[in-house]
Design goal:
208 residues, alpha+beta, Rossmann fold, Thrombin, subunit H
């Protein structure tokens, strides 16, 4: 894996490299453009990460030894299974293809914010975790998981709008909480303008 970093960096990718399963799983909650993982990860394997990535619509590359069963499972989870010998340039090309296919090139920078209370359809409570001009990431108890389309209200900023759920994945192993990516629904320019002004006003820091 270390041999991939220079090639991917030279190709213009910003990398976050971690050495254990727990940290990799936590990073998936930030919804990166792509996951690249080895199959063997101590007591776990890369397919566990691929499953979580697939749930969040994040493309994944799993690098492992030849094994028809594992290859089939990787494919079932939407991951690309790569066997030795590993050609870093091929991985870079594959990464570019997967990111483009998944449409994960972000149109605006995300801002990580302190938890902000928000309500789904004026009932279920959750929290905003990060925001962008295009939408937001929202966390809630699994029982309060939002429907595909819903109204979100943010009392602290006296703002509400209609949004569309784009993806949803569990936050923790027991799936008691879920994380959702949502985008503004509709084309109301006034709402869009108000939301973008709110994003600028919220305290926080940019994440890429």
């Amino acid at each position: 894996m270390q041999s991939l970093a220079p090639i991917l960096t030279a190709a213009g990718y910003e990398l976050t490299v971690v050495a254990d399963f727990g940290r990799a799983r936590a990073l998936l909650d930030s919804h990166p453009d792509l996951l690249i993982t080895e199959l063997k990860l101590g007591n776990y394997n890369g397919l566990h990460l691929a499953i979580r990535a697939h749930a969040a619509n994040t493309p994944a590359i799993v690098i492992g030894t030849p094994d028809p069963v594992l290859e089939a499972e990787a494919e079932r989870q939407g991951a690309t299974y790569v066997k030795p010998p590993i050609d870093p340039r091929r991985i870079a090309s594959l990464a570019n293809e997967l990111i483009k296919t998944a449409g994960h090139a972000r149109r605006s920078i995300r801002k990580k914010v302190p938890p902000v209370e928000a309500f789904v359809n004026n009932e279920a409570r959750g929290e905003l975790r990060d925001v962008s001009y295009d939408g937001m990431r929202f966390e809630a108890a699994e029982r309060d998981a939002p429907p595909p389309y819903f109204d979100i209200r943010i009392p602290q900023f006296d703002f509400s709008c209609r949004v569309q759920r784009i993806w949803m994945s569990p936050v923790d192993e027991d799936a008691s909480r879920v994380s959702c990516g949502v985008a503004l629904a509709g084309s109301d320019s006034k709402v869009t303008s108000e939301w973008r002004a709110l994003v600028d006003a919220m305290p926080g820091f940019a994440v890429h």
